[in-house]
Every structure is written in C-alpha cells, then in structure tokens.
Amino acid sequence: MRWSYKVARVAGIDVKIHVTFLLVLAYFGAIYWRQGGLAGAVEGVGFTLLLFLCVLLHEFGHAFAARLYGIRTPDITLLPIGGVARLERMPDKPVQEFVVAIAGPAVNVVIALGLLAFLATKVRMSDITELDQGGLLESLLAMNVMLVAFNAIPAFPMDGGRVLRALLAMVMDHTKATLIAARVGQVLAVGFAVWSFSGGPTMLLFIAFFVFAGAQQELAYARFRSGGGSRRVSDVMFSGYSSIPTETPIAHALALAKASRQGVFPIVDHQLRAIGIVSVQSLEKAMADGFGGHPADDLAQPVARIQGNALLTAAMATIPPRVPVVVENPSGQIVGLLAVQG
Ligand SMILES: [Zn+2]
What we know:
The strands form three sheets. The protein has a four-stranded mixed beta sheet with strand order 1-2-3-4. The protein has ten helices and ten strands. Helix 2 crosses helix 4 and helix 8 (250-258) crosses helix 9. The chain has helices at residues 19-68, 94-125, 136-152, 159-169, 174-197, 203-226, 233-236, 250-258, 280-288, 312-316; strands at residues 4-10, 13-18, 75-79, 82-86, 244-245, 264-268, 274-279, 304-307, 325-328, 334-338. Bound molecules: zinc ion. Zinc ion binds at residues 58, 62, 104, 151, 159.
C-alpha cells in the first residue's frame, strides 16, 4: 500500500503504518489536549495506541491462523479504519477460510475476557467507589467487545461475511456461496441505511456504504475466480494448427494453406520458433502477382508472443490489438495459436 511505512517486523511479518494513521493519532491528541491539557493528550494518544494494538493483535490472529495452512502474510498495515493483513492468497477450503476469519475476532474475545478478569479482581480487592467508570481499561474492554460485535455482522468485508461464506461453501460451490453471502451483506447495508435515515446513528450510514462496497468487491473477485481468472493461455489456445516451414516457396505454402481451414499460418524455423505469420489472402495475392517462387518468409507479418503457462486475463492485457498471437513454451518454441480478430 502506498504511503505505508514499516515500523516493525514480528514473526516474519512486516508491520506497516499508513501515514493517515499518524494524522488520526494527532487529531485525537489535539481533542484530548483541549479537554484535559497535556495529561489528557497523553492519555488520549495512549488509549488510541492501545486500541490499535488490539487491532494489530486481531490481524496477527488472522495471519497466524493462515500460517497453519502454509499461507504467508508478508505484511499487516494499520489504517485509521482498522488493520489489513495482506495474505499471500486466500484459503481455498471452506474450513480453512472459516478458521482464518474467526481467528481475528477470537483474539479480541481473549483480550476482553482477560481485561474483564483483571477488572473483576480489582473490584474485589479495592473499595467499589475507587473503580473508575470511565477508566482506560474499561474503555479498552468496551472497544474489544465492539470490535467483536462489528466483525460478527455477517457481511463483507467484515470477518462475519467470510465466516458466513465459509459456512455456505461447505454445502455448495464457492461462487454460489459468495453470491449468497454478498446478497445478505447488501440487504443488511440497505437496512442500516434505512435505520440511519429514520433516526438511527449516523455511523450506520457509513457502515452501510462500507458493507455495500465490500459485497460488490467480493462478487467481482468470485466472478474473476470462476471465470477467466484461473485459466491459463494453454487452456484456450488452438494447438491443432498447421505451420509453414521457413524458406517454403509461396506456391507450395499456398497449396498447404488451401488444404487446411486456417486463415493464418505461422512460419517456423528449424527450432520450431515462430518467425512471423502469413495470411491466406497475402499468399494468394503474391501468387497472382507472380511471386510463387519466392519464399513465404517475405510475406511474414510480426506476431505477439505469450507464454502458454501465463494466466489468460493477465496475458491478454499485454497483447496489442489486431496482432496475431503465437503461444510459446519457455524455450521459445511455438505450441499454439490464439484466435485472431481482424
Ligand atoms: Zn478481522
């Protein structure tokens, strides 16, 4: 993520902070300063830092759960809206997705229970009037409970959305599970918006937008995965093509071309590397113009080359329009053609 800076490395995971996070810290510091002077500012910033430590531990929960399945997490970034653990890939098995999704909020449950237990002993040991109702630990306990509640909403991009999708994917295919989970999220988003407009908290409107966008993004990703996303060039290439050996006279090449139904033919050298491509029309025209004895190489047009093992969507993006495409193996030999337009 741009504007993110590494501040630590824990268990092989880079911890990064987005610059806007520092702005939020400064903002809270300023607000507390106005209320309680320097001591207030220190306490405010301290509380914000502790809160984000809980968010960071939540993200480490996801990262360590993913590690159980051999999935690395290169970095965790703290943003003002929360943390993002960038997993190398998403787990494929529903059970694994369930465990990775639930591991984050589980950390906050543990923190909350720990704080609760600590505060309970404090109450028992001291006079009840000494318990500071608005104290730091009480606030931190409340924030951890809120983090768990927020992530329990069964909507993307919250962890609850992933838990719901994982549960659905145990009894149906992944794309359908994503579709249903995303629709549930969108219905909730509309519900939050209506609630907010009819006198509910303004915060709900923000969450509604957040959830609606999360559902759209998850749907797009699921379509990408089920569509061309995971297909490779070699899955869709035409491998039963005919080719014309280099130095073949145009008359002979035209005879070869007429015997096949292809519109274009790669010209290949002795190592089976494509040196260009000729069309039937250009062979016919050269023949009619009396160049039947010339090598077909003279008519070769340049080609675009892509690797057979490349991902289709990524490879297609690199191809200039209206240029014939040959598919090659890693040693540069032609292994197929892609359908050519124009
Ligand atoms: Zn989470």
